[in-house]
């Protein structure tokens, strides 16, 4: 539309210019005393001018439609093939033959000793000869025990044979001082004498004797 208006305005301008020229010529004819014929010629000439209106510009062709982009079809989704896990083959268990049991020969068991013969019953008991208090006196006091003021009571047991002699001495309770206990068991087997115990037949039999010995520091 703007292009058409411009053309039309240009034509109008041309027409205005031509009209001005014509009017100037007419005026000039009037001024210069030209005859009506001259005016007519001019008018006739003017009629010859054929001002053709330029045809309107052809309408613009509409822009071509955008080319359609060919659709690219996405490939069909194909599920992956399932993963096939190969079966696990258990290893072959090779069973080793069992070794034959080892038989360890056992040492022969020693036969248990025969039980001791029963003690003969005492018809007559064991009796000490003399005073047991005289078996060990203050003169037998160990010198070291005297210096250390050691005193106490030693319990003892004497094993007495069928002949009345002491065969063994055992401390049954300590005085608290080893030298006193050892002195007692060292002297008693040598000094103690007994009338042996006898069975019903009057034969001497082994027996035991138990007593206590008091160790007391002698006074000066």
Structure, explained:
The chain crosses the membrane at residues 16-36. The protein has 220 residues and is an alpha+beta fold. Helices cover 29% and strands 15% of the residues. The strands form three sheets. It has a three-stranded antiparallel sheet, with helices on one face. It has a two-stranded antiparallel ribbon with strand order 1-4. A two-stranded antiparallel sheet has the order 5-6. Strand 2 (152-160) and strand 3 (166-173) form a beta hairpin. Helix 1 runs antiparallel to helix 2. The longest helix has 31 residues, at 2-32.
Strand order of the largest sheet: 3-2-7
Mean pLDDT: 80
In percent terms, what proportion of residues is strand? Answer: 15-25%
Provide the low-confidence segments as ranges.
1-6
**Number of distinct helices:** 4
Helix percent reads 25-40%
Going by helix content, strand content and strand pairing, the class is: alpha+beta
Order of helices and strands, N to C? HHEHEEHEEEE
Rounded to an integer in angstroms, the radius of gyration calculated over CA atoms is: 82 Å
The main β sheet shows up as:
3 strands, antiparallel
Quaternary class: single chain
Number of E strands:
7
3D shape: rod-shaped
C-alpha end-to-end distance: 166 Å
């Amino acid at each position: 539309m703007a292009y058409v208006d411009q053309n039309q305005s240009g034509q109008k301008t041309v027409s205005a210019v031509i009209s001005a020229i014509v009017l100037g010529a007419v005026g000039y004819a009037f001024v210069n005393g030209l005859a009506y014929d001259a005016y007519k010629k001019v008018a006739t000439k003017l009629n010859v001018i054929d001002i053709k209106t330029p045809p309107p510009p052809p309408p613009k062709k509409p822009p071509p439609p955008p080319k359609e982009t060919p659709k690219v079809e996405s490939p069909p989704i194909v599920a992956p093939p399932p993963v096939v896990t190969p079966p696990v083959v258990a290893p072959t268990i090779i069973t080793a033959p069992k070794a034959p049991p080892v038989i360890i020969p056992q040492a022969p068991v020693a036969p248990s000793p025969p039980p001791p013969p029963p003690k003969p019953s005492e018809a007559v008991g064991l009796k000490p000869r003399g005073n047991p208090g005289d078996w060990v006196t203050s003169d037998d006091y160990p010198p070291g025990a005297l210096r250390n003021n050691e005193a106490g009571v030693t319990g003892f047991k004497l094993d007495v044979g069928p002949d009345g002699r002491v065969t063994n001495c055992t401390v049954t309770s300590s005085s608290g001082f080893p030298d006193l206990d050892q002195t007692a068991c060292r002297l008693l087997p040598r000094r103690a004498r007994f009338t042996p115990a006898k069975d019903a037949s009057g034969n001497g039999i082994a027996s035991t004797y138990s007593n206590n010995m008091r160790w007391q520091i002698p006074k000066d």
